[in-house]
Design brief:
single chain, about 325 residues, alpha/beta, Rossmann fold, Phosphatase 2c, domain 1, 2 domains, five-stranded parallel β-sheet, five-stranded antiparallel β-sheet, elongated
């Protein structure tokens, strides 16, 4: 940490410097030469006069409450009295430093969220099909993810995943999946590889996933599920929605993961829809009631995603148009 030499006479200066022997003393006129992410300790008057960008703990005399209030309004991290330092100043400084770094991390979240969104797949033109997607984090970062890419001129591989929990760790796993998927050519291979890596690294997270491959010419759709809910839904004109419930373990729980493959031929105007469980949150009731509401809105093409959601939401949908 820095200690900025005060420009006025302070009778308690030597006492304070003896209490803080590991600080680096610098001159106020040189403040621009130093790291703006390291905390400084300075006299309140110098802080108000120079208005530097260094994160600062200000020191004031006992009667200078107004100056302290002005310093807090200007962004000071904390305010101490010159002759009444905390009984254990070093742990107090460490606590302030840790809180400051946490706040800095929080300020980085919008930029991190923008980077995460850039990892989403760019729209691609698919023969005979349209793609609809939704990516709506509940906070800055999301643990829900989808991706799709061509593995040949007539086949597209896709997945939708939901990482357990929320926060930075969950979102990092989505980025990891986005970087990893290109080595896989089948849904089963993708699921097996991701599961193996999760188990091997012993990450205390699990991932539910639906992965599939769609032939754009024959319209044969093949997919596998790893403990994912809600199940895949197929909607066809003038028919009740088809629900493909599966039973399997999520990724990351066991090495012996059994992966079943399902197959369906999509008719013209059919829609294959997969989503994360956050898509159920806007609806009232238990899971069954929420799922019924979701089916109703899908059938009537009235599904709307709220601007603010309690849980991350993602969905991926392929619609056969020819």
């Amino acid at each position: 940490m820095y200690f900025i030499q005060p420009t006025r006479d302070i009778p308690y200066l030597d006492q304070v410097l003896e209490t803080l022997p590991h600080v680096q003393v610098i001159l106020p006129d040189d403040h621009e030469l130093y790291d703006a992410t390291i905390i400084a300790i300075a006299d309140v008057h110098d802080y108000l006069h120079y208005q530097w960008n260094l994160p600062t703990i200000v020191l004031a005399l006992e009667h200078e409450g107004t100056a302290l209030a002005q310093a807090w309004q200007q962004g000071a991290l904390a305010g101490w009295i010159w002759n009444q330092l905390p009984e254990q100043p070093l742990p107090a400084l460490q606590k302030i430093d840790a809180q400051y770094k946490r706040n800095q991390d929080s300020r980085d979240l919008p930029a991190a969220a923008e980077l995460q969104k850039r990892l989403l797949p760019n729209p691609i033109e698919l023969l005979n099909y349209e793609v609809e997607t939704c990516f709506q984090p509940s906070a800055y970062l999301s643990g829900d993810w989808y991706d799709y890419w061509k593995i040949s001129d007539k086949e597209v591989l896709f997945y939708l995943a939901d990482v357990s929990g929320h926060g930075v760790t969950s979102s990092l796993l989505t980025s990891w999946m986005a970087a990893f998927h290109g080595r896989s050519k089948t849904p089963r291979e993708l699921i097996k590889k991701l599961n193996g890596m999760l188990v091997q690294e012993n990450i205390e997270k699990h991932i539910t996933m639906i992965a599939g491959v769609l032939n754009l010419e024959t319209h044969v759709l093949k997919w596998s599920s790893a403990g994912h809910y809600p199940p895949p839904i197929i909607l066809e004109p003038n028919q009740e929605p088809k629900i493909f419930t599966t039973s399997s373990f999520p990724l990351g729980l066991t090495e012996e993961l059994e992966v079943e493959e399902y197959e369906y031929i999509l008719s013209r105007n059919a829609r294959f829809f997969i989503c994360s469980d956050g898509a159920l949150e806007p609806f009232e009731g238990g899971l069954n009631e929420q799922f019924t509401h979701l089916l109703h809105h899908l059938k009537n093409q009235s599904l709307e995603i709220p601007e603010h959601v309690a849980d991350d939401i993602a969905f991926l949908s392929f619609i056969r148009v020819k």
